[in-house]
Amino acid sequence: MNGLLFLIIQAELMKDLFGQALLDFHQKTMGVPLLLHTEYGPPETIPLERFFVGEDEFPDLDIFALEQVHGKILDIGAASGRHAFYLQNQGHNITAMDISESCGIVMKEMGVEKIIIKDVFNFEGQLFDTIFMLMNGIGIAGTIEGLKKLLRHIKCVLKPTGQLLFDSSDISYLYEERPMPENAYFGELSYRYQYKNKFGDPFNWLFIDRDKLVDIANSVGWNCQIIYEDETGAYLARLQKR
Q: Torsions phi, psi of 42, nearest 5?
């Protein structure tokens, strides 16, 4: 292999430590855990097995969300493709999207038929009736401003009568023993993956409380309904174009 090409591939793998760990877990070659470094405590081990549970182990919130879908469906941030595979087996017209090529390999091996490997911010050219982002997939927005940008962009790939479904939660409890940030929204967090002695680039992830979400959605032309909430405080939102 050309030396430069090898370095480029290695650099890309370092950027996608989550995808590489998910693929290793799926192919049973994972020897060390995937760690997530946080702002608020010691590194956490990511339980990758939860990305491979069957429908009988789906959280109640996920089950409720999947019951709401209809028409041509897009699963953004599909990861292992477990939700897409379930809907595919139910006869739905479902496409799974993820930015990670390693996740794409996992999805293909899991049996998902329609896969798009792309950054959602650069995706266009198709229209869907239902778009969903579960497991706090909306977190890819990173910040409040990123959320506004994402919601504006998703309008371009959603039919006029379509719906956007996603879950999030209020994480203000993290600040019970430390001060709230003064110059940023408290749900804007920074993380970093560690896998096989490699560190990924730091990345921002967003958790948004219900009231803030409604305000943001309204400000960029969406109607927002909270249609489910579980005992942990996680909630499911349905957004439709105004």
A: -70, 165
Confidence (pTM): 0.92
Q: How many helices, marked H, and strands, marked E, lie in the chain?
A: 7, 12
pLDDT digits (tens, 9 = 90+) for 22-43: 999 999 999 999 999 998 889 9
Query: Residues near 9 by Cβ (< 8 Å), separated by ≥ 6?
Result: none
| CB contact burial 193-219 (16+ within 10 A = b; e otherwise) | bbbeeeebeeeebbbbbbebbbebbee
Q: Which class for 80: exposed (0-12), middle (13-18), buried (19 or more C-beta within 10 A)? A: buried
Q: What is the CA radius of gyration of the chain?
A: 18
Query: Is residue 111 a contact partner of residue 133, using CB atoms and an 8 Å limit?
Result: no
- Spell out the domains of the chain, with CATH numbers in brackets: 3-241 (3.40.50.150)
Residue 100 · residue 132 · CB < 8 Å:
no
Answer yes or no: is pLDDT of 5 > 60: no
